[in-house]
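User: Second chain of the day. Same drill as before.
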Amino acid sequence: MKKILLVFFILNFGIIYSQIDYSKITGISKLKLDTLALQNAMEVSKQTQSLLEKEIDPNLYKVGPGDKFEFSIFTTQPEVYPIKVSPESKLMIPTVGLINVKDLNLTEVYKIAEEKIKKAYKTTEYGFMLSQPRQFKVIVSGSVAKSMSIPASPTDRASEVIERAGGLRFDASLRNISLIRGDSVIPIDLLKFFLAGIKEANPFLEGGDQIIIPPSSERQKISIFGEVGYPGEFEFIPGDSLSTLIRFAQGFLASAQLDSVEISRFKEDEKALEIFFVDLSEWSNILNTRDDLQGDFPLQIGDRVLVRIIPNWNKENYVVISGEVKYPGKYAIIENKDKIYDLLLRCGGFTEDASVADIEFIRQQETEKKDFEMERLYRTPFSEMSEFEQRYFQSRVREKRGAMAVDWNNAIQQPSSDQNISLFNKDSIIVPTKKNYINVQGRVNNPGYVVFVEGWTYLDYINQAGGFGYRADDRETFIAKSRGEIFLAKDMNYVIEPGDVILVPPEKEISFSEVFKDVITTIAQLTTILGVLFTIYSALPKKQ
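Assistant: Same format as last time:
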């Protein structure tokens, strides 16, 4: 359960100290309370109450009112006595005597009890031990959901009691928390506890403690960015050093360039920026040590640390080959060095069903380039384009962007040829399956696939598909090649190949309105002609 609580705190740290808008993540504003998160955190805190991190250290555990002990005498008739420390810090051991345990630790109580027991019983067969830690009240106030008194035990740390008070507010300081114990003020730094693993920064509690959480200051920050595990801004307190900040950021990534870590610092007038570099090559394992690090130095408010990435660090250059190859997949490459032939060797070559002539090679880098002229034309109505723009648009809109033209037989059989081109990042090679058919569709009586026959014309395939259907427009029949070209079938300026599509479109539909219009136009024209003839006839001289 303590691990769950740790995760909850770290998640909240990320929200408070990142530059992400908390309201966009949770859907609530800063002035509202995330009741679900509060309920979950308080439930986890209740489940961890009185659980031990490890065995109690008797030298550190202070005995107080409410602690329960157990005293046992092992004789022929064993006797067991439960004992509880009184509100006045007195411990009465039956048949032994009274012990004043005020301000004593467990080791000291054990020592006094042992002396008294040995005097009362002439035996070493006895037992005296703490059986259950006490509970007491701790006051939590300040930037928490609600200031209140919280039940706690000596095995509880300050962070656990804060959660039982509803958790920290959005503006709470995580590093300037004060624990008031009598006349002493003990600092609490939850960042050091959770992110740097410093246990002393989150102390165990005693009865009468008061925890005060002030608001954090937006003007009191240090930050680290770049190749670290947990980049962001962190609250600053005096004594923070460069190693503290890096530990807060969970150390360096493997990609970090440590020989030139940049430190930016405002000068005292806050108008000039000082930039200097430090070599932290010896700090690569900073999370695995608690020792002082050579070259460490204190930070100042506003300091910014930038850890750059190693140039060209593990640049993920890859190509994808799919379809009819023995081992399709995503292959890492050295850009502009590895070639098509090298890739085919690695993927095991083509299968027996591969259609080598129909391989598609797409260069992603070309598809990502912007064509500003086409973007403009897409926004322009076709009727408003000039003739040149229309022709340009019609040509480019059919273009398969990034398609590379490669003579694959040449590239495979002659690796030294210019057809064995170099590969670039994100190239894609698609090897299709052989197609031994022609797809005949549209206005035919039996559309579908027809087995390819060498030398057949488009009319042969249409006849095989049942011939032209009703209202078929045989003059506009066209051939669509597998590589995207389109030919008018009657022109015969192409070669039919496996995988081609023959499409027979329907004749243009003539609507009633168009027929009516044509009839009216014809009648009008005839009427005009008759009128002209009548006028000519009337003008002719009459026979006497």
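The radius of gyration is 44 Å.

User: Great, on to the next one.
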